[in-house]
Amino acid sequence: MMMNKTRSSTLKLAKYLMMLPLIFLLVTANSLYASQQEPISDEAVATPAIGSDEGFFSQDPPPVKKEEAGEDIFVVVEKMPEFPGGQEAMMQFLADSIRYPREAMEKGIQGRVICNFVVMKDGNVSDVQVVRGVDPLIDAEAVRVLKLMPAWEPGTQRGKDVNVRFTLPVVFSLVKKEPKILIDEPKQISEAMSVEAQVQPHFVFPGGQKEMMRFISEKIKYPVVAQEDGLQGLVNAFFRVNGAGTITGAEVADGAEGMSTLNNEVLRIIKEMPQWEKDGFVLVSGRVTDSHSRPLQGASVIIKGTNNGTITDTKGGFQLKVPAGEASLAISFIGYKTESVALSTLKPSGGEMVTSLPVIFKIQGDETSKSYSGPVPENAVVVVGYGYGAKKSNGENNRAK
Questions:
Q1: Are 326 and 398 found together in one domain?
Q2: Nearest Cα to 203, choosing from 146, 102, 274?
Q3: Span 208-251, pLDDT tens digits
């Protein structure tokens, strides 16, 4: 399946099974999981200080959905998830669990660690990450404790349990050499953020995703020489679509050595694709930074009046497909003033739309080698063929006859 760098919140994983000579075409996707770390020792116990009775998750925009491995993840919903027993119970959990790293105390390390995590629709906490850290010592402690949280009561949207991402600032503070942990209250901070963005037309394969998959299934082949040599693996291909819808600059990212035969097959398919068409959307790309020009990772970027949006990456960058017309974006991040950007004010980028096509070539039915068991990117196309062992056996049988 094709995967654009701009991810639509409504995109669903499709699975295709089309039989070709000695080849099967499938669509697969990764699953997400969260690991739980063991508690650490030799740390100083710190008493959390509550910054506000109003709670630590206060955001104004409408629900935001982010596509991750086929799962919609909201930022704000009608009924937010709740820690079992409420906020007081959560604070007690933090008081019992969190430790101020001794080495960090000795070095005078303190500051606000901004984390986020996902409360899944089953209540489990997943995908804990630091979106802005202070020092690895206290960053790791914040992540460790959040991963230990018990299952929450899940959030709901339109009466259904949904996945919800939270942003949680944890302040490690040394007051007269006494450690304190503060769950920061967003309204205490009102810094300004900077948003730079530009717009360009959005293109799709003629006829849409199904036609593109049909095209690939009819064209792609598992090279015979590659099957005989037991060659298999992941090919990460990228290509650009210019302002006229023409595909340019197809290339393959660095991968395993000796993959040129498979790489060339994927590049051949891309180069044979017809000219792409505009689909009534535009592609907005940009970068969000703070007042010191530092990137803001994890900022939500939504289309005003909808629940469609995305979240900025580690460099503060984002890319979002937006309906062409008089639309506006709302960009928000905890502790910062929400910014509004009208599409009509954005300048055309004049650039090209970058699209990726991950393809896995996988051998089955070969007794002489193991089948591919490496990483499978979400929405990857998997081409399955038969290896040398099976062909050799068939050849021996033919000779015997």
A1: yes
A2: 274
A3: 888 998 899 899 999 999 988 888 899 999 999 988 899 988 99
The reported pLDDT for the residue numbered 4 is 40
Domain count, the chain: 2
Residues 242 and 322 in one domain: yes
117 and 183 inside one domain: yes
Same domain, 26 and 54: no
**pLDDT, tens digit, 9 for 90 and up, residues 303-359:** 887 767 888 888 889 989 888 887 889 888 766 778 889 988 998 887 788 888 999
Q: Are residues 243 and 382 in the same domain?
A: yes
Determine the structural domain holding residue 7 and report its residue range: 1-30+190-401
Calculate the CA 339 to chain-centre distance: 23
pLDDT value, residue 369: 63
Q: Domain ends where: 188, 217, 234?
A: 188
Same domain as 219, residue 84: no
Residues 226 and 178 in one domain: no
Low-confidence ranges of the chain (pLDDT < 50): 1-70, 186-189, 390-401
